[in-house]
Amino acid sequence: MPSADDVDALAQILDRATLDVRPVPKLTGTTPLSLDDAYAVQRAGIGLRRLRGDDLVGMKMGLTSRAKMQQMGVQVPIYGHLTRRMILDDGGTVQRSAHIHPRVEPEIAFLLGRDLEGPVTPAQALLAVDGVCCALELIDSRYENFQFTLPDVVADNGSSSRFVLGSVVRPRDFDTGNLGMVMTKNGALAECGSSAAIYDHPARSLAALANQLAPLGERLRAGAIVMTGGATAAIALAAGDHVRVDVQGLGSAEFFVA
């Protein structure tokens, strides 16, 4: 088990990799990490961002598809944190040079209107939701050759980098459980799928997050953004790309890469 100093040192390695846009070897290549250890590194890394004035705005879920869960050998999804500087305006532009090996995936995001504390069912979790929107998450693992173990990706905040939210829709207008989702790159179809691929239902992903936080004495706060996980495989990005997602009943979200 790594010491508190070791956890801080590992967090600083990933933080510096992000700031310098320079990949590093996976942490587990030299330091054995349990999932609890990895989450400690993740939280220490978020603490470094907060010291720079980058406030928390929400959380994200990862490994929410059945295929990814089986591939990584997990029974429940993993989670990470969202900060204010990760927000990219709908239609905005990101710099390819600011990322190591960026990829993007389409998601459903919830906006919480009140605190949410587990244990809860998916139906109970939805009662805390004040808005829902389509979203794009730009992921960018800080590891060399995009190779990592489960603890590595957890320590790296689920590979999260930036995210875009579309227009907000009130959640009780329709069920988010099986919405068609189409992601295009430069006007051509890149991926298509259903929101049902997000842990069977985005609300189930939201409830799972609240239930994972509960044993830690934590809750999701009113006003939080929750990214529920990718609905399709992620696609690689290059300078000059334009990515857009269209979601049944939710509209669209997009961004450009310069």
Give your account of this protein's structure.
This protein is an alpha+beta fold. The chain has a single domain, classed as Fumarylacetoacetate hydrolase, domain 2 (Alpha-Beta Complex), CATH 3.90.850. 25% of the residues lie in helices and 31% in strands. The protein is built from six helices and 13 strands. Strands 1, 2, 3, 5, 6, 7, 10 and 11 form an eight-stranded mixed β-sheet that branches. A five-stranded mixed β-sheet has the order 4-13-12-8-9, with no helix packed on it. A hairpin with a 2-residue loop joins strand 8 and strand 9. The radius of gyration is 17 Å and the shape is globular. The relative contact order is 0.22.
